[in-house]
Amino acid sequence: MIWNPNKECMSRDEMSALQGKRLHKMVEYVYHNVPFYRHKLQELDIRPDDIQSIEDIRKLPFTTKKDLRDNYPFGLQAAPQSQIIRVHASSGTTGNPTIVGYTRKDIGVWSECMARCLTAYGVTRDDLFSVSYGYGLFTGGLGAHYGVEHIGASVIPAGTGNTEKHLKLIRDLGITGIACTPSYALYLAETMDKLGIKKEDIRLRVGAFGAEPWTENMRQEIQERLGLKGYNLYGLSEVMGPSVSYECQMQHGSHICEDHFYPEIINPVTLESLPAGQTGELVFTTLTKEGMPVIRYRTRDLCSLLPGTCDCGRTSVRMGRIEGRSDDMLIIRGINVFPSQVESVVLSMPEFAPRYMLVVDRVNNLDTLQVQVEIRQEYFTGVFDTPAAVDQLEKKLASKLKSVLSIAAKVQLKAPNTIERSQGKSAHVIDKRKL
Amino acid sequence: MTIHQLSIFIENRSGTLIKVLDALKQAGIQIIASTIADTAEYGIYRLICSEPMRACEELKKAGVAVALSEVFALELDNEPGRAADAVKMFSEADISITYMYSFLLRGKGILIFRTDNNEHAQDVIRTKGLKSIGEDALSALA
């Protein structure tokens, strides 16, 4: 099912025309209402009338998380406070939180986009849907909540915590859909095991998972253990919240609500736009937002865009899985290296456990990169009784790394379970360079 | 007839070897012979022991990267030149020996080696009257 075929299945020409029109309006709006943007545009000698088509977006300057923090709390707000009906705040682990105000129209657009997501997942007004994201300053809970109400399904605002009671409701009420983080979904499955609740005892069939990175393996595990189909739900509070993009029944890339959020992929170093299909940093421009619009906001998320009509019938551009964060980037011998690139290579070779460590050092003024990987016990067979055989395995990995990274990496094999398991992003890198 | 050798991946770090040896000790496995092929970063610890299958399982449980490899064990008279005689027979048959180590057991020389062609090596052992020794016999001697 498609919630809004007019927008979700629009022809490319119509979509580009709509985006161009909305971009022009948006630039005019922020130019007159946000001194920060006005100054930036004036510095570049750009007038709102210079922006007529969506291609003109490349003339505009980028906005970063730092800009949002520097203008804390309401510096980037475009609408007068009297028009703001809700304020969310993103976690401020390093400095000020980001404050995002929404007008009544913004909340309407958000509900509309969330309705598109839920409909793509197969949720209808007949469903009982549990929102198990945190309610509060975090956009997850209320964002999903309004979407469920908008399509007319019954929302169960479970929030987080009290998992046993939540499971009782899932079972007794026959709850059919859930929105939560993928890790919470796995925690639910564990709690079910603990309480002796089987997946046959519950009626969950749709999961909307987001707010943290997850893998295809996690999807398989959640689907298997909860007996549902799990879909990606992507969003960020700086742009709106959950609903910026969503997977459809094809589970092949997430459709972006591009009539409201215009995506670009850029090289995070040169800031050049990259062609479709290439991985780079995801950048969003809000096309209709009133409260706090953003122009070319750098998400720091690395992914690629998949253009073309999807088998589901939607024409909206899709984004691939988030492959990493551009702030993890290392510069080694002048080449940009992302830990996620190493990860993709390591994951592609079953001989190694899905764990790795990058050790960067500088020896005689030359950067060195060492990649530590664990040999997987099941793949350590009798043929590895000579160093020559083990070296061959190292060489295989080294040559794959070389082709992906464009620089040579020295592979160091480690025994099973010797590399620390961690979910943290920076935990994959040891940079010993003293500069 | 080949016997099982444990081939174990060992990092060049203190504590890695004792982890292996401790696991074997806990399992009551007796080591008959061992050698390490070392490189700058790691070693392949090759080990002949009692109950190699069980030893392998126990080491796996302990989280060690271990595998079973098939090697030959030849029993030779303990006098000068016997190893040369034996190896020459394989060399003349164009069989390469990948690695080899030896030890003395009850006054007999035991030569452990792996070849690039086990079937062919087996023929040489049979036709040349060499005495290869099996796992049970080796354990009994130890």
List the helices and strands and how they pair.
The complex is a heterodimer of chains A (435) and B (142).
Chain A: H1 5-8, H2 12-33, H3 35-43, H4 65-70, E1 84-90, E2 98-103, H5 104-121, E3 128-131, H6 139-151, E4 154-156, H7 163-173, E5 177-180, H8 182-195, E6 206-210, H9 216-226, E7 229-236, E8 241-247, E9 254-256, E10 261-266, E11 280-286, E12 297-303, E13 305-306, E14 318-319, E15 324-325, E16 330-332, E17 335-337, H10 339-348, E18 352-363, E19 366-375, H11 387-405, E20 410-414, E21 429-431
Parallel strand pairs in A: 3-4, 3-5, 5-6, 6-7, 18-21, 19-20
Antiparallel strand pairs in A: 1-2, 7-8, 8-9, 9-14, 10-11, 11-12, 12-15, 13-14, 16-17, 18-19
Helix pairs in contact in A: 2-3, 5-6, 8-9, 10-11
Chain B: E1 3-11, H1 16-26, E2 31-38, E3 42-49, H2 52-61, E4 66-76, H3 82-92, E5 97-105, E6 108-115, H4 118-127, H5 135-141
Antiparallel strand pairs in B: 1-3, 1-4, 2-3, 4-6, 5-6
How would you characterize this protein structure?
The complex is a heterodimer of chains A (435) and B (142). Chain A is built from eleven helices and 21 strands. The radius of gyration of chain A is 23 Å and the shape is globular. Chain A has helices at residues 5-8, 12-33, 35-43, 65-70, 104-121, 139-151, 163-173, 182-195, 216-226, 339-348, 387-405, and strands at residues 84-90, 98-103, 128-131, 154-156, 177-180, 206-210, 229-236, 241-247, 254-256, 261-266, 280-286, 297-303, 305-306, 318-319, 324-325, 330-332, 335-337, 352-363, 366-375, 410-414, 429-431. By secondary structure, chain A is an alpha/beta fold. In chain A, the strands form five sheets. Chain A has a nine-stranded mixed β-sheet, with helices on both faces. A four-stranded antiparallel β-sheet of chain A has the order 10-11-12-15. Chain A has a four-stranded mixed β-sheet with strand order 20-19-18-21. By secondary structure, chain B is of the alpha+beta class. Chain B folds into two domains: 3-69, VC0802-like (2-Layer Sandwich), CATH 3.30.2130; 71-141, VC0802-like (2-Layer Sandwich). Helix content of chain B is 35%, strand content 37%. The longest helix of chain B has 11 residues, at 16-26. The A-B interface holds A 375, 377, 380-387, 390-391, 412-418 and B 5, 7, 9-11, 16, 37-39, 41-42, 44, 46, 60, 63-70, 98-99, 114.
